Every structure is written in C-alpha cells, then in structure tokens.
Amino acid sequence: MSEEFLSFIGDRMLTVMYFDLSRYVIAAGLMTGALLLFRGWATRKRIQKRRAVRKDYTREIASSLRTVFVFALMSLAVLGLRETGLIALKLETFTALTIIWQTVVIVIAHDAYFYWMHRALHHRRLFKPTHLHHHKSRTPTPWAAYSFSSWEAVTEAAFVPLFLLVTSQLGIAYAGLAIFLFLWHMIFRNVIGHLGVELYPAGWTENRFTQWWNTTTHHDLHHSSGNHNFGLYFTWWDRWMGTEHPRYHEEFRRVTRAKQAAPDAVAA
User: Fold this and answer.
1) 29 Cβ contact partners less than 8 Å away, ≥ 6 residues apart
2) Is 93 exposed, middle or buried (0-12, 13-18, 19+ CB in 10 A)?
3) What whole-number distance in Å separates Cα of residue 200 and Cα of residue 235?
4) pLDDT of 170-220, one tens digit each?
5) For the chain, which residues make up each domain, given as ranges?
6) What is the first-listed, main subcellular location in coarse terms (predicted)?
7) CA 232, CA 82: separation in Å to the nearest integer?
C-alpha cells in the first residue's frame, strides 16, 4: 500500500468511526431516556409482557460496536471510491428541492433493498450464520438497532456504496447532505422499530394516509414470531409479497388502546 493511501485511511478512520458511533449512541440514548422519562406512558404502550434483561443489553451494545466498525469501513470505501471518481458524491451546496428528492429516493431504495436482503437472510441456509444473532433480541430494546453478526453488518452497510455506484453510473451526482439526512433517518427509524413501546397513535394502521408507514409493533412482531414483517420503513413490500403478520392490525389495536396501568404496575 502506498503512503498516500495509508495516510488517507488514517486521517479518515477516526472521523467516520466517530460519526457512525455517535449516530447509534445519540438515537438509542435519546429514545432510552424518553422511555425512562415517560415511564408510565411507556408501561401502558409496551408491546410484549416479557422484558429484556441485562445480558440482552450487554450483547446488543457489544455487537453494535462491531457493526459501527463495519459501517465505518464502508464509509471509508465510499470516500475512497469518490477519490477515484467511481462515485459522484458532491459536498457542494445543492438546492433544497434536490436535497428533498434525493433523500426520498434513497430512503425508498433502501427500504426495497432491506426487505429483500432481510428475507434472504431468513433462508434456512443463511439464517444461522448471518441473522440469528439479531434475533437473540426476542424482546428488542433501542440498543438492538445495530446488533448484527459481522456478516449481516456487511450486508446492511453495503447498501450505500452500491446505491451510489449505481446512481453515479446513471449520471446522478448525489448530495452529501442527502446522504447525511438519510443516515440519520435510517438510525432513528431503526431504533424506533426496536423500541418495544408503540409510539404511533390508535388508528394509524387503518388510516389510508398513514397505514403504509411502519410502526414499532410491525417490527416487534418480526422479532417475537419470525417469518413475517420484513420491511424497515414502509409496509408496502410486506403487503405486496403476502408477508405481513396476520395479527398485525389486531396487535397494534391492542397496544394503542391499552388503558391506564395500575399505579403499582407503573412503579414496578
């Protein structure tokens, strides 16, 4: 390896590690703090009766640190490909309209990628070496968002460089701010999916304007029951492919219409 390349890696590795770690810690930490601050409300909106224990949190955080490292390597790959001209990633100022449509496009593309990648990892020959580790969080917590095996972390992180390679070949220069917004959207939606507490109001899944937007119950059912609900941001792929959990709407109604918990239950 040339000294120039090693210098490039060394200068940027700590930066991308810090960025990927901070996204995870900020998103999971803020959501954890909110659940503690609004404990009574969170108790009423809990999806599962079972609660995660200390070893669950320890496993989730430890494996998430490994995932952060893998994500950082992929971020370095993107920067390296940008240096070679294979990826057209622009850090200059773009119009607000460009930032909006590029962010929307990458979110929709990622949802499609995630759905099919996720279903593939559930194949009987792939599940144990790749995705089983994530499903050890049967009752997920906000810290489970990045709790992946090394193999799954690679498949998760591969999306951004692959997407940018494709868009660059199509002659589309992506804005750095659009990628930035996508990455923050991704981690917060991921954490919300593993929250264990339903944030969305009653009627959300039955309203034609909101029913396509994923809820915490949607992904929580995936963790508790297995081969359903593979989508990340939206419900449409699960609907189109017939993989939505048959009790999804019933479970959402049960959780969102829960009555005030007894004082002793809240205190517990």
Assistant:
1) none
2) exposed
3) 14
4) 999 999 999 999 999 999 999 999 999 999 999 999 999 999 999 999 999
5) 3-267
6) membrane
7) 28
